[in-house]
Amino acid sequence: MIAAASRPPEQRGLARDGVRLLVATPDGGRHARFAELALFLSAGDLLVVNTSATVAAAVDGHRADGRPVTVHVSSPLPDGTWLIELRQGPASTGRVTDAAAGEEIFLPAGGSLALVRRYPDADSDRMWVASATAGGGLGGAGAGTPAGRRVSRRVSRRPRGAALSGPPDGS
User: What are the residues whose beta carbons fall under 8 Å from the beta carbon of 133, sequence distance 6 or more?
Assistant: First the structure.
């Protein structure tokens, strides 16, 4: 079963620190809540916080056979390609797991993307490196453009060296 939040926790009646947390230990994984994070940390542990920049955009498109997809745009890559995630239909109900390298995704206004390779490796089924092949690319994807819409995200950052006494707001 794949579970994904369709709305922010506050809109689902949860506190921000009430979201699920998957904890990996030498004995396996277990589910917890983000508010319990401190229970799993010991002095000297390293906590990595991902603050990498992403493009908060989604573009509706379709596959060659007509099935609708939503392209979640992650970030541009140095070689001019894009890191993307393909989701099922305009409602983004689940990942597209049957895509193949070389497949073309058709976008509004005549644009398209060619799936170059799975990312970060051939066994991955979530992210793709994609190349814009016609009618422009994803440079304009996002809020305020005909092709895209904004994916809502709130991010707040702590100053370097700040103590972690609770969950980061908005992450």
Answer: 104, 112, 113, 114
How many Å apart are CA 72 and CA 79, to the nearest integer?
Answer: 19
- Residue 72, token pair as written in the block: 């979640």
Q: Record the tokens describing residue 149, joined without a space.
A: 């819409």
Whole-number Å distance between alpha carbons of 68 and 31: 33
H-assigned helices in the chain = none
pLDDT digits (tens, 9 = 90+) for 41-77: 888 888 877 766 666 678 889 999 999 999 988 888 8
**Secondary-structure breakdown of the chain: helix, strand, coil percentages, each rounded to the nearest 5:** 10, 35, 55
| Domains and their CATH numbers in the chain | 9-40 (no CATH), 57-135 (2.40.10)
Distance CA 57, CA 63 (A): 19
Strand partners, 48: none
